[in-house]
Amino acid sequence: MKVYISADIEGITGTTVWSETELSAPDYAQFQKQMTKEVLAAIEGAFAGGATEILLKDAHDSGRNILIENMPENVKIIRGWTQEPMCMVAGLDSSFDRAIFIGYHSEGGSEKNPLAHTLSLLADIKINGEYASEFLINTYAAALHDVPVAFVSGDQALTEHIARYNDQIFTFATKEGVGHATINVSPQTTLKKTKYLVEQSMKIDRTKLQIELPKHFTVEIIYKDHIKAYRNSFYPGATFKPHNTVQFETTEYFEVLRLLQFLT
After folding, report:
1. Tens of pLDDT, residues 222-256
2. Residue 191 and residue 37: Cα distance in Å, rounded?
3. Are 247 and 237 in contact (CB under 8 A)?
4. Residue 74: CB partners within 8 Å, gap ≥ 6?
5. Does the model's pTM come out above 0.90?
6. Is 131 helix (H, G, I), strand (E, B) or coil?
7. Please, what CATH class does the domain formed by 2-120+133-209 belong to?
8. Residue ranges per domain, the chain?
9. Is the N-terminal amide bond of 161 cis, ω within 30° of 0?
C-alpha cells in the first residue's frame, strides 16, 4: 500500500508565533525537531497499518524543514518546490492508496489559530463562498486522482472544519488558538495519538474517506492590497471585484490549482 504524506508546521504542537516557523529564526530549531517527530510518528503508524511505501512532501515555506537523517527505508521525501500546481501535494497520483496531512492549520480568515492562513499571508481564499483551508485545497487535489485523505493533525478549529466535509476522516487536535496564544497538548501525547490514529486510518475502507469534488468552482482571492488584486484580475478568465478581490469560475479543479499557483 502506497501512502502520501504532506507536512506543514503551523499546526504541529507548540507553534504559536511566526518566528517559530521560519528557517533562519532562532526560535525555529525546537519546532523543526517537533515537526520531524510528528512526521516520523505518522510514518510509524502508516507502516504499522499496512503501508509498504511512503512519499513525503515537506510542504512548509522553503520545503526544507524535516530532518531527514532518521527517515526509515521505503520513505522518499520531496524537499523544495517542484513549482507545479499540485503544490503541497506534488507527486501525488492515482498509484497512492490514501494520504495523510501532518501539522495543518486553520484557513485564512480564521481567528482560531494565530498562524492561520491559506497558501499566502497576502490574501485569503474562498471556494464556493466558503473560506478555504489548505486541507480543503489539497484534499480536492488528491480527489482529482481518487486518493482519499485518511488522517489530519492540526489545530482544533481545523478538525471541526474537516468534520463538516467528512466525519470519517481521522483527526487529532494538537492545539487550540485563543487570540495570539495557543493551548497545546503534550508533545508526547501528539506523538502517541498520531501513531495510533494513523495506524487505524490505514484500516478503514478508503471509500468512506472520499470527499467528492464539486461540479463547479467559484474562487475568490481576497487580497490585502487592492492594486495587486487589480493587476492579477488580468489572469485569463479572472475578473476584478472592488475593492480587492479576484474572482474566477471553472468546472475543472486543476484550473483552480493553476490559478492559485500563479496568483497566490
Report:
1. 999 999 999 999 999 999 999 899 999 999 999 99
2. 7
3. no
4. 47, 52, 53, 54
5. yes
6. strand
7. alpha beta
8. 2-120+133-209, 217-263
9. no
